[in-house]
Design a protein that fits this description.
The protein is α+β, with helices and mostly antiparallel strands and 246 residues long. Helix content is 30%, strand content 18%.
Length: 246
């Protein structure tokens, strides 16, 4: 029996490289790190890297900490066609959301199921229940926290946010199927053009960056901030000065 198109091994050269920073190797190394942080437990979460016209994508339904470069999908960015499909695995359901980030100029997109990200969305949701607002009418906001300096000011803007700046991360409602989040994610990107992340209610967060390193450090900074925000709420400390209407 012949193998389906693109899984006969003829395109394996796309994922074979001794360089640890080659996307196929880098995705596997990062996913192992993210597993130790609880970001991709139980096959959850995802990661994709764009290098020139090739998009490297972690598969769906695989234990992320045990991935091998041969498990990686490779897509042509222009045609949106798979150049390489690993046998036995399904394409990531996150793929259309990764593409939305790449269409905005990103070179890496990370999706985590961080508990701190989920808890922050639950806290904002609870706040909204008291005010009658929909989750899409508000966002997570925090200010005067040093780690905010790890987040860029916005696309085409120089530098990072400062201590006195207010970080805003939009929140979108969850859906039964991951790919159905795409339109809401794209809408949030338009409403918050400076954001490098979108929270998904009761689900997790998508973070992207102009490079793999930037996406990684931004995801780490945001997770630190989300955890701090949960602890601040526990201590009844405000995230922002509500007297400041910005």
């Amino acid at each position: 029996m012949s193998l389906p198109k693109n899984i006969d091994g003829s395109m394996d050269h796309l994922i074979k490289d001794d360089d640890p920073l080659h996307p196929a190797n880098y995705i596997c190394a990062l996913c192992r790190d993210f597993y130790t942080l609880g970001w991709v437990s139980g096959t959850g979460g995802g990661l994709s890297i764009k290098e020139e016209d090739h998009i490297f994508i972690a598969p769906s339904g695989v234990e992320k900490e045990r991935m091998d470069p041969f498990d990686i999908f490779v897509m042509d960015y222009t045609t949106r066609e798979y150049l390489r499909r690993p046998p036995f695995y399904k394409p990531s359901a996150c793929t259309p959301l990764f593409l939305a980030a790449f269409d905005k100029g990103a070179d890496c997109c990370i999706h985590t199921h961080s508990q701190w990200a989920v808890l922050v969305t639950l806290l904002v949701e609870r706040d909204n229940l008291g005010s009658g607002k929909a989750i899409t009418d508000t966002c997570f906001e925090i200010e005067k926290i040093e780690q905010i300096k790890g987040i860029p000011k916005g696309r085409d803007k120089e530098g990072m946010l400062g201590f006195f700046d207010r970080l805003k991360v939009p929140i979108i409602p969850n859906t039964a199927d991951e790919e159905d989040l795409t339109q809401s994610l794209e809408t949030a990107m338009e409403q918050y053009p400076d954001t490098y992340a979108v929270l998904v209610l009761r689900h997790g967060v998508y973070v992207w960056g102009d490079s793999v390193e930037k996406a990684k450090t931004q995801a780490e900074s945001l997770d630190y901030i989300f955890r701090l925000a949960v602890e601040m709420r526990r201590l009844e400390l405000p995230w922002v000065d509500r007297a400041d209407s910005r």
